[in-house]
């Protein structure tokens, strides 16, 4: 009897333990469920009330695997950096308005909503002597600007054209005020400086240097220097300059020798340059300024149906071989020495064209024919790190071989040049047979891929009026727009102690030295 009672008690104990285990396990599972739920993203928060709610929406749609809305948020190459800036920190500026864009697989086509404007530009009404007056244009009325609906003053040709950037940008701003403005508009002119993202100084500095840098008899100063002196006096006297110390101003100095005197006084402004070869880094640098392409002189290769085999010349170079003493002109350029050395190294190669050439005696047409029939075109540093030859090669769909260690390239923050250019370090290029072996080892498939890419990006380097979607004028304005957040941050920081300074009677606008400004 005792044994029977003991066995029944054992059974009851086992059942009790099993029941307790079930209850404990159930409670444990539920507790983990509530813990995990509490650490996940709350579903009851309205993300529209949060900062950067648009970014959260993009992340949510991306994580859910939906594809319907991806085309609405995917940036094109022209405004990709602008959208990134907006996602990182929302800024209440007009330039940061969204563009409805769709990006093709090649990543370069800018199909944007034509009615949306990125950049508002205030442009000074400088007297004609600073701009179209340099083209022998004379105003017929009180306006300082030509009537674009009647006749547009022509820019001089030949090599003058390669540095004509300010001419095209000014025309584009003036065109934005026409009754029927061009559809492609990245920037518009505004009449109130307080509404502007940037303030443009329309001085044709490159033309001034090219035409008027020589001192005429019985003159103490060249006309170019006189204009620079007048420009500095005019600009620095404006209330817009005084309010910002010039930080929100924009001026083009594309020719390396343009604005040589005025740059030392207008340095707080953003410069549009061809390179930094003749600028100390405290006056001009890649963080502060914008690099713009040259206007190519070579004719664009329209309806290019060439193939790898139909371009018999392997390497092509035609230009100045013996340069100035570039070590004095620009410490960043050693092109004079490199060009001479390469000339001797490449002599005797049957499929290499390396000769002296200029724009004289039908030189442009000969260069066009040469580039159109070459697989690779050499772009070697000259007096400065950059040259127009790179953009002539792009227009000719001749794969550029860039030998310039200090070169800065236009739009490189949104464009990958390695997809259509070959970069060679100077020390490697000067090794015997290095260039020839490198280019000969690039096969048909790889060359064809780069050749196709050149055709896709060519429009980014075309200057024209009226400007078209995705051309050089629009790309430069977009590059300027990507500088606006940094400009505004510097400007806002400079005003931190404005109240205490003004109470001391020392004024609000105080400009630091170039060494610590940027």
UniProtKB/TrEMBL annotation:
Record keyword Glycosyltransferase present: yes
A UniProt-annotated Pfam family: Exostosin_GT47
Residues annotated as transmembrane: 17-36
Matches recorded under InterPro entries: Exostosin, Exostosin_GT47
Keywords from the UniProt entry: Glycosyltransferase, Golgi apparatus, Membrane, Signal-anchor, Transferase, Transmembrane, Transmembrane helix
Annotated compartments: Golgi apparatus membrane
Bilayer topology annotation: Single-pass type II membrane protein
Protein's recorded name: Exostosin GT47 domain-containing protein
Protein's organism: Malus domestica
């Amino acid at each position: 009897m005792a044994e029977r009672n003991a066995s029944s008690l054992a059974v009851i104990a086992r059942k009790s333990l099993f029941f307790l285990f079930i209850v404990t396990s159930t409670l444990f599972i539920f507790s983990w469920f509530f813990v995990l739920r509490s650490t996940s993203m709350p579903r009851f928060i309205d993300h529209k009330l949060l900062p950067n709610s648009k970014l959260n929406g993009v992340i949510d749609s991306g994580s859910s695997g939906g594809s319907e809305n991806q085309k609405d948020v995917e940036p094109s190459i022209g405004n990709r950096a602008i959208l990134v800036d907006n996602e990182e920190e929302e800024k209440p500026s007009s330039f940061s308005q969204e563009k409805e864009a769709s990006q093709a697989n090649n990543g370069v086509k800018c199909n944007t909503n034509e009615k949306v404007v990125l950049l508002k530009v205030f442009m000074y009404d400088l007297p004609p002597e600073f701009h179209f007056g340099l083209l022998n244009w004379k105003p017929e009325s009180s306006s300082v600007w030509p009537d674009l609906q009647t006749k547009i003053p022509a820019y001089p040709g030949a090599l003058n054209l390669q540095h004509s950037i300010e001419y095209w940008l000014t025309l584009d701003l003036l065109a934005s005020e026409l009754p029927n403005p061009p559809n492609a508009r990245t920037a518009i002119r505004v009449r109130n400086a307080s509404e502007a993202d940037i303030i443009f100084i329309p001085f044709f500095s490159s033309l001034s240097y090219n035409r008027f840098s020589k001192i005429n008899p019985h003159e103490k100063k060249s006309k170019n220097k006189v204009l620079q002196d007048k420009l500095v006096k005019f600009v620095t006297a404006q209330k817009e300059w005084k309010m910002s110390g010039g930080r929100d101003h924009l001026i083009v100095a594309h020719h390396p020798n343009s604005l040589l005197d005025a740059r030392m006084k207008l340095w707080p402004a953003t410069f549009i340059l061809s390179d930094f070869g003749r600028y100390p880094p405290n006056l001009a640098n890649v963080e502060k300024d914008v690099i713009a392409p040259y206007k190519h002189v070579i004719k664009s290769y329209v309806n290019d149906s060439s193939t790898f085999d139909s371009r018999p010349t392997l390497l092509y170079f035609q230009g100045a071989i013996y340069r100035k003493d570039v070590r004095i002109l620009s410490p960043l350029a050693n092109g004079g020495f490199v060009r001479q050395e390469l000339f001797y190294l490449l002599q005797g190669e049957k499929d290499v064209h390396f000769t002296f050439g200029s724009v004289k005696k039908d030189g442009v047409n000969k260069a066009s024919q040469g580039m159109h029939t070459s697989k690779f075109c050499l772009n070697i540093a000259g007096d400065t790190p950059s040259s127009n030859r790179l953009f002539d090669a792009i227009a000719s769909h001749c794969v550029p071989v860039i030998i310039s260690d200090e070169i800065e390239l236009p739009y490189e923050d949104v464009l990958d040049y390695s997809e259509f250019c070959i970069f060679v370090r100077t020390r490697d290029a000067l090794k015997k047979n290095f260039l020839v072996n490198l280019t000969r080892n690039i096969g048909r498939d790889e060359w064809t891929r780069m050749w196709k890419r050149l055709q896709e990006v060519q429009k980014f380097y075309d200057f024209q009026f009226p400007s078209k979607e995705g051309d050089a004028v629009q790309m430069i304005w977009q590059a300027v727009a990507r500088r606006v957040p940094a400009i505004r941050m510097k400007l806002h920081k400079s005003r931190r102690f404005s109240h205490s300074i003004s109470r001391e009677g020392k004024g609000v606008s105080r400009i630091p030295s170039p060494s610590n400004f940027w």
